[in-house]
Amino acid sequence: MKRMQRMVEQRGSKAKRKVIGRLPRIAAAVGASLVLGAFSIQAVYADTGCKADIPEYVDINVQAACPDMKGLKKDKKKVVKFTHKAHVEMLAKKEKKFVCATCHTSAASEKDIIGADKCGRLQKDLEKGGGPAKLKNHFHAICLKCHKALKKAGEKSGPTSCKGCHNRK
Description:
Blueprint: H1 2-11, H2 13-48, H3 62-65, E1 77-79, H4 84-94, H5 118-128, H6 135-152, H7 162-165, E2 166-168
Antiparallel strand pairs: 1-2
């Protein structure tokens, strides 16, 4: 765009006509890329089995979000920033199923996640693995196991060290 502005400034009205003549093609190209981008995003979400908007980031610091959950150990390390949308999109490329259940282990559908009591749902997940005292084991079994497997396979993976995901409080 700046190149076109310079061309108009340098060459005058002839260049202006040339730029104006290109506008419909430029607009069509921009519009097509926006439309195709929307389709590819919808396709990714369709592959996940989710119809709702998937948040970019999610706070998974359970002790802060669910202070009334009995049996939770004190939170010594805070999760830095969980890139929820990136995780969903990566899983959707690899698997053609309801990918949300990869992390939301008790969810059978989108309804089990959206609008449900976050703490109650997590408590249900944790009960399968030894209760809230095993929260660290629960997340590490899901997250760290996946990150290490991807790294071992030579694929792009998330962090595999403590500092990659956590900051000391």
